[in-house]
Specification:
This protein is an alpha+beta fold. It has four helices and 14 strands. The chain has one domain. The strands form three sheets. A nine-stranded antiparallel β-sheet has the order 9-8-7-5-4-3-10-11-12, sandwiched between helices.
Length: about 270
């Protein structure tokens, strides 16, 4: 349309002004959504993991939102004090980038790592959520916890942000006894005990809060629990109801050997 002499080239009606104002308000939000959208995570069989699984910082490994990522590719859930293998942002599950722990034994969801009574130190049994006694009896497969340094990071509940612990790590020495090494910002020193002991840090990584404090107790609980205690659990189970992380459709239970502690990553130890 051509403008008449003396008139502006274009007249904006009140409606058009309103539309432009709305678009200007929405533009920043659309940009945030575009850049903050989480990557899709996959189980070993190629199925898509639930939306609450997010990629760990600078990694293709996916852990459940709000839970800890371990540098060895596993995840850690503080509520039940348990390590597990989560999902991967790459459908092909490249072995160098996504840990293939319990990869074939449980390919349609995350895999918990249980310290069964017949296992030696640092050996865990693969299992889906359920009674620990049933998992140990089924004995789908075992995995040996890898030695070396293990650092922690937390999967944010938001798809746009994530935080990492400064430089907290777990070290497994030549004897196979795990210990926690803290960063310079952690003022408290580890307390050491002998014979299958762990050094428990009082200040574990800034930003992870209670989950990592509980995490520091994970190794202690696992390695200090005797086979006799686990056997007693089988005789008088006191189940804890577990809300599935997404891939299993109904509520499961975990045996009392996991009481007071808590995915698909994944102390240590899966």
């Amino acid at each position: 349309m051509h403008a008449l002499p003396g008139e502006p080239a274009h007249k904006c009606s009140a409606t058009e002004h309103h539309r432009m104002a709305v678009l200007m308000l929405l533009l920043p939000l659309l940009l945030v959504i575009s850049f903050g959208r989480a990557e899709t995570c996959y189980w070993p069989n190629g199925d898509t993991a639930p939306d609450n699984y997010h990629a760990c910082p600078n990694s293709k490994v996916c852990c459940s939102a709000g839970e800890a990522c371990l540098s060895n590719g596993l995840c850690y859930g503080a509520n039940l004090n348990i390590a597990y293998r989560g999902a991967c942002t790459d459908k092909s599950w490249p072995i160098a980038e996504c840990t293939r722990v319990c990869y074939t034994e449980i390919d349609n969801g995350w895999a918990n790592l249980y310290p069964c009574p017949n296992n030696t130190n640092q050996v865990f049994t693969c299992g889906a959520p359920g009674w620990a006694s049933s998992v140990c009896e089924a004995d789908l497969g075992t995995v040996t916890w890898p030695s070396g340094d293990v650092s922690y990071a937390k999967v944010s509940n938001s798809t746009t942000t994530s935080s990492t612990a400064s430089s907290t790590s777990t070290t497994t020495g030549a004897t196979g006894t795990p210990s926690v090494r803290e960063s310079p910002t952690d003022a408290a020193e580890s307390n050491k005990s002998s014979d299958n002991s762990v050094a428990l840090g009082a200040g574990l990584g800034v930003g992870l809060g209670v989950p990592l404090v509980l995490m520091s107790l994970f190794l202690f609980i696992l390695w200090r629990r005797s086979k006799k205690q686990v056997a007693q659990t089988y005789a008088t189970p006191a189940p804890v109801m577990v809300e599935p992380k997404g891939s299993y459709g109904h509520t499961m239970t975990v045996g009392s050997e996991l009481e007071g502690s808590q995915p698909p990553v994944r102390e240590l130890q899966g």
